[in-house]
Amino acid sequence: MNDYLQRLTAAVDRELLAGIDPRRSSLEAAMHYALTVSGKRLRPLLFLSLLDAYQQDGRRLIGLASALEIIHTYSLIHDDLPAMDNDDLRRGMPTVHKKFNEALALLAGDTLLTFAFEKIAAAPLAADKVVAVMGVISRCIGKDGMALGQALDLEFSGQADAIAAIHRLKTAELIKGSLLAAALAAGLDPGRQEILGRAGIALGLGFQLADDLLDVTGDEKKVGKKLRKDGGNRSPNAVLYFGLDKVRADIDAYHRQALELVGGLGIDFPPFLFLMKNMLYRSH
Q1: Which residues neighbour 249 within 8 Å (Cβ) at sequence distance 6 or greater?
Q2: What per-residue string of b and e applies to 5-23 under the rule 16 or more CB within 10 Å gives b?
Q3: Percentage of the chain with pLDDT > 70?
């Protein structure tokens, strides 16, 4: 399974940079830098492995898969800015605004978002499927999704009951979108799409809780960024408000929920199930 995921990751990494030449401009240099910083590539891996679970040819949609990672990367560039989370490191490397400057980081993030939709538009799918995927991804990352989650995160001032909504919007929506994009590409019926959407939300909520856990208990060298900032920043870290035991129990519950949902669809593809587990139980 590790070999399978490593091959997919290598294919995604190659596709991420297709069409970007850092020699052409400082803008493309910043975009290239952001995409070459190593990452887990979870969203494209979920997309591709779910297609494989349905015996679809996911490799022909590697461009669409890479678009999911490009969108995620744009969000990280903006999250790291001084006006947002104010981080100097991302995955052990200087953040884009530290490597270049804040203005270029803003432009690089904006351009990566549009570049991602170029890749989705070029996907070798029927036009109605391309439009459907664009609609799903747009809703997951826009005013009712990831962007709203980031805004609520910035406004957070200690209301514990707001944390789950922030986690769902900021993190889980794009993970849901990755599964729904695969479901649309595979031609699954609306009922199966709805179940996969619920599984994506469960995975995303568990993934964000694991991130919160790492901020409190993790090793900075493994995680690749400064940890234990959330308390001082009044961030919506669930561990700070509900404790380690509750967060660990919730991660277990979200993992069980996701397994039950995909199991109900008859999905038993080992790499996909392995990826789901690794998202929620990780050291970095």
Answers
A1: none
A2: beebbebbbebbeeebeee
A3: 95
3-state secondary structure 114-167: HHHHHHHHCCCCCHHHHHHHHHHHHHHHCCCCHHHHHHHHHHCCCCHHHHHHHH
From the list 174, 169, 162, 182, the residue with the least C-alpha distance to 200 is: 174
What backbone phi and psi angles, to 5 degrees, belong to 40?
Answer: -80, -20
94 three-state secondary structure: strand
Q: What is the pTM of this model?
A: 0.94
Concatenated DSSP letters of 45-84 = HHHHHHHHHTT--GGGGHHHHHHHHHHHHHHHHHHHSTTT
How many folded domains does the chain comprise?
A: 1
Q: 226: exposed, middle or buried (C-beta count within 10 Å: 0-12, 13-18, 19+)?
A: exposed
Tens digits of residue pLDDT in 81-112: 999 989 999 888 999 999 999 999 999 999 99
Question: What CATH number is given to the structural domain containing 12?
Answer: 1.10.600.10
Q: What range defines the domain where residue 64 resides?
A: 2-280
Assess contact for 84 and 78: CB atoms under 8 A. Answer: yes
Which residues are bridge partners to 93 per DSSP?
A: 90
For residue 281, the SS3 value is: coil
pLDDT in tens, 155-170: 999 999 999 999 999 9
Q: Between the CA of residue 67 and those of 35, 38, 53, 209, 253, what are the distances in Å?
A: 11, 16, 20, 25, 30
Mean pLDDT over the full length of the chain? 94
Give the tokens for residue 274.
């392995």
